[in-house]
Amino acid sequence: MQARIHFISGLPRSGSTLLAAILRQNPRFHAGMTGPIGSLIDANLRVMSMSNETAIYITDKQREALLRNIFSTYYADIPNGDVVFDTNRNWCARLSLLAELFPDARIICCVRDVPWIFDSIERLIRNNKFQPSGIFSFEPGGTVYSRVEGLAGSNGMVGFAWNALREAFFSEYTDRIMALTYETLTTRPDLALEAVYDFIGEKLFQHDFENVEFDAEEFDRRLGTPGLHRVSRQVRPSSRRSLLPGDLVRKYENDAFWRDPARNPHNVRVV
């Protein structure tokens, strides 16, 4: 790749799209919502595995080159010297691969108190009363309890990302990751962006937190979840009462392991 590359990962509904929308104000930066590269990487790893009888003819050196070329082809139009931020929740579970492909890359992990993640998703579902969401396979039934249970499962939208994040926190690549809390990003965006620039080794850019724009209206419409990637113009914390029953809040309120030094033994930077 001509451009430098970093990654945005972490938990859903935790500010990754907002962070990308802010970063793209810098004319040298290229960022957006979750893109197709994560799926392309997984598909190619599967095809090049021994489940394909002809994979015996593919060397690891060729595998590495093919995977790297997915990135360089997708971002071929990015000028030399610019910086790409590729977003995918799967990257936390692919640190060893990313370290091999891009030794200088850094991963920004967006995190948020888990009950508020569930609340944010539940709010989207309730706001879209006349169309089932693709988040739940377009099924119209269920309750807040079944929806949270599905999201929290090991392969669920939240559960998988949470497990991948924990894996990253206990990996041998913790020097490559930082955790950026939704709370800091929305209440002190200046502090959050200063930390991001310091982490990736770039000169600080003067961002405008009063005029942030991003929307993926057509994508969200096809997913049956309008507003999923809509970013408000002004970066502000939201103050509201949770839609979750109290027992669900209590069940997940201690899952923010990044706040507990005892559960962050490698001292991953948390902002």
Low-confidence runs = none
Distance between the termini: 29 Å
Helix content: 25-40%
CATH superfamily: P-loop containing nucleotide triphosphate hydrolases
Total domain modules:
1
> Mean of the pLDDT scores?
94
Tally of helical segments: 11
Coarse shape:
globular
Number of strands: 6
* SSE topology string: EHEHHEHEHHHEHHHHE
β-strand percent reads 5-15%
**What's the Cα radius of gyration?**
19 Å
Strand order of the largest sheet: 2-3-1-4-5-6
The CATH architecture assignment turns out to be 3-Layer(aba) Sandwich
- CATH C-level label: Alpha Beta
Name the structural class: alpha/beta
User: Mind summarizing the main beta sheet?
Assistant: 6 strands, parallel
CATH topology, by name, is Rossmann fold
Walkthrough of the structure:
With 271 residues, the chain is an alpha/beta fold. It has one domain: P-loop containing nucleotide triphosphate hydrolases (Rossmann fold, 3-Layer(aba) Sandwich), CATH 3.40.50.300. 40% of the residues lie in helices and 10% in strands. It has 11 helices and 6 strands. It has helices spanning 16-23, 37-47, 60-74, 95-101, 114-127, 144-152, 157-169, 182-187, 189-200, 217-222, 246-252, and strands spanning 4-10, 29-31, 83-87, 107-111, 177-181, 269-270. Strands 2-3-1-4-5-6 form a 6-stranded parallel sheet, sandwiched between helices. Helix 2 packs antiparallel against helix 3 (60-74). The longest helix is centred in the first third of the chain and has 15 residues, at 60-74. The model has no long low-confidence stretch (mean pLDDT 94).
